[in-house]
Design goal:
Strand 3, helix 3 and strand 4 form a beta-alpha-beta unit. The chain has helices at about 20-30, 50-60, 80-90, 110-120, 150-160, 200-210, 225-235, 240-255, and strands at about 1-10, 35-40, 65-70, 95, 125-130, 165, 190, 215. By secondary structure, the protein is α/β, with parallel strands linked by helices. The protein has an 8-stranded parallel β-sheet. It has a domain at about 70-215 and about 225-255: TIM Barrel (Alpha-Beta Barrel).
């Protein structure tokens, strides 16, 4: 399995376990997860998000075969162009993660579009976690809503050459993002960690409406336990070839992994 949604480092409002490279790899071994895309949990709340990128690059230096780094940058912070260059050319980061609610901008702001276009020119996949935590469980110091799906739709339409992964979200099937023939470019995939595979079976509906090439495996660890995401694939009513695409094939293609 290739997990497109994992983290290393500390989070300002909550203790995380298995948040070092060694700890995460031990957890991955127990759950038979081959590789994971990781970004800095600290960058979500750092004033300068790039400091977390530097920490991640150092943390995974000896584990690049299994841990794939993804940058976290704030397009409203001065110097992001230099930071993006460092993340891609110096740290070898294959992706970019955006936190518009935590970093106080909109995905359709000109600054964000500039960052997305610049990352796309470098063949970096752009990931958008819709949430970090359930809003009901957040610290009393913050009140951060989920990223709006219509706002995401505006971004994917404005950047048709980009490749997006939408992570840590649910309710896609009831939005424009999950509808068949929705008029949007097919430049985004949906990660499964918060999707239902029984009852409403949003996972099955997205496979039918978006296609088997646009759903990817992710756990959200260590914010979440990996077991529910793994179990969803076990109970999913789909062929083994489709499950294999979700487990690793689609992510390997999107991230250009050998």
């Amino acid at each position: 399995m290739i997990d497109v949604n994992a983290y290393l480092g500390h989070f300002a409002f909550r203790q995380l376990r298995n948040n070092t490279a060694e700890g995460l790899l031990r957890l991955m071994d127990r759950k038979r997860i081959e590789r994971a895309v990781v970004s800095s949990a600290a960058s979500i709340t750092y004033r300068n998000a790039h400091s977390g990128n530097e920490e991640i690059a150092a943390e995974i230096r000896d584990h690049r075969g299994r841990l794939i780094p993804s940058a976290v940058l704030n397009p409203t912070y001065a110097g992001w162009r230099d930071d993006l260059k460092a993340c891609h050319e110096e740290f070898g980061m294959k992706g970019l993660r955006l936190y518009p609610r935590w970093h106080s901008y909109k995905l359709t702001d000109p600054e964000c579009l500039d960052l997305v276009h610049a990352a796309t020119e470098r063949n970096m996949v752009v990931s958008i976690p819709l949430r970090v935590e359930d809003r009901r469980q957040q610290s009393w110091l913050v009140d951060v809503p989920d990223v709006d799906k219509d706002e995401i739709a505006g971004l994917v339409k404005a950047a048709p050459k980009a490749q997006f992964i939408l992570m840590s979200g649910s309710g896609f099937a009831g939005s424009v993002l999950g509808r068949k023939n929705n008029g949007l470019p097919a430049n985004y995939a949906v990660e499964i960690c918060l999707l239902s595979a029984l009852l409403a079976n949003e996972l099955g509906r997205l496979l039918e409406d978006l296609g088997e090439d646009r759903v990817v495996f992710g756990t959200g660890m260590p914010f979440h336990y990996p077991d529910p995401a793994i179990l969803k694939l076990d109970v999913l009513e789909a062929s083994e070839s489709v499950k294999e695409k979700i487990r690793r094939g689609n992510a390997a293609r999107l991230l250009r992994l050998t």
